[in-house]
Amino acid sequence: MRTGARGHRAGGLLFYATLVVTCGAVAFPFYWMIVTSLQTGRGLFSYPPLLWPDNFAFQSFKAVLSGTALPRWLANSLIVSLTSSLAALVVGTPGAYALSRFRYRGKTAFAILILTTQMMPPLVLVIPLYIIFRTLALSDSLTGLALANFAFALPVCVWMLRAIFDSIPEDIEEAARIDGCSYTQVLVRITAPLALPGFVATGIFAFLTSWDEFMFSRTVITATEKWVASIGLSSFIGIYLTPWDQTMAAAALFTLPPVILFLLVQRYFVAGLSAGGVKG
Predict the structure, then answer these.
(1) In this predicted structure, what is the pLDDT of residue 105?
(2) Do both 22 and 121 map to the same domain?
(3) List of residues 6+ apart from 129 with CB closer than 8 A
(4) What is the tens place of the pLDDT at every residue in 124-158?
(5) Inter-axis angle of helices 107-116 and 142-166, to 10 degrees?
(6) What whole-number distance in Å separates Cα of residue 155 and Cα of residue 118?
(7) Are residues 16 and 82 in the same domain?
(8) What is the model's pLDDT at position 3?
(9) Is residue 63 situated within a structural domain?
């Protein structure tokens, strides 16, 4: 009995030790980013490195907020990311619902075709998209960038939403259709509220995809005032000198919107997709 209890206790200790080490490995880069952004002068290049800032100086944050266009770049990123993610949700919802609920010839082939678009390297699509955008006078504009991010996120959003709709029992929808509701009314009034946690998760995925996108933004956008934050961060790296404290301060500010967004909607990730929807 005692041997079993000791083994159970040792297993628990090993689990928590592994959990602490894993969380520490994940969190340390963010911690180091904050520490570096608060360092000034020789503290940046001291050896051994300082794991705690010698002084809490916020000059780097003041420098990037007042001396650069970072606030404008962050606003551009926010506009593009919100626009593209909302558009992907609005357009992807009826497509995912049709793939989940309707039966028609070629449905499986169409679903696979949507998925295969994600197998193509983005680098292959940059030049064709750039030519199309230049022809349509959408290059060097936030509208064109939002459309591009929308196109990149839409196929994955359709597949994610399809899986969410598949997890919702059809009995609820059939009862609503018997009462006279159309498919649109069923989707808006019945299915969408039950799938709200899935909508949130899919929207965050689309938002982060657009927020972190760099390659196409760097290709399409040339005007400095229209840069998004991912491009602006790369401009801090100089040829001969890189202000690491300002670079890390800008990176810390760049990570804030996704973190705040996740904290605001984190409760939806643990909510049941159809909790209480069907009574036994």
Answers:
(1) 81
(2) no
(3) 148, 151, 216
(4) 888 888 888 888 888 888 888 899 899 888 888 88
(5) 130
(6) 7
(7) no
(8) 59
(9) no
- Domain presence at residue 276: no
- For residue 49, pLDDT over 80 is answered with no
Parent domain of 192: 69-226+255-269
> What letters, b where the CB count within 10 A reaches 16 and e where it falls short, cover 200-209?
bbbbbbbbbb
Residue 275 has pLDDT above 50, yes or no: no
Residues 79 and 207 in one domain: yes
For residue 62, is it within any domain?
no
Q: How is residue 224 annotated by DSSP?
A: G
How many Cβ atoms from other residues are within 10 Å of residue 74's Cβ? Answer: 19
* Residue 60 one-letter amino acid: S
Helix (H, G, I), strand (E, B) or coil at 135: helix
Assess whether 18 and 53 both reside in one domain.
yes
Which of 14-23, 55-64, 215-224 is predicted with the least confidence, judged by mean pLDDT? Answer: 55-64
Residue 270 burial by Cβ neighbours in a 10 Å radius (0-12, 13-18, 19+): exposed
Kindly report the average pLDDT of the chain as a whole number.
Answer: 81
Is the same domain home to 205 and 77? yes
3-class SS of residue 243:
coil
Number of domains in the chain: 2
Crossing angle of helices 142-166 and 196-212, in 10° steps, is 150
How far apart CA 115 and CA 109 sit, in angstroms, is 10
The answer to whether residues 89 and 130 belong to one domain is yes
Q: Can you read off the two tokens belonging to residue 131?
A: 């030519």
Whether 214 is covered by a domain: the verdict is: yes
Tokens linked to 95 = 């497509």
- Pair 79, 210 in one domain: yes
pLDDT at position 269 is: 58
Q: What is the structure's pLDDT at 82?
A: 92
Supply the pTM of this predicted model: 0.80
Return the CA Rg of the chain. Answer: 24
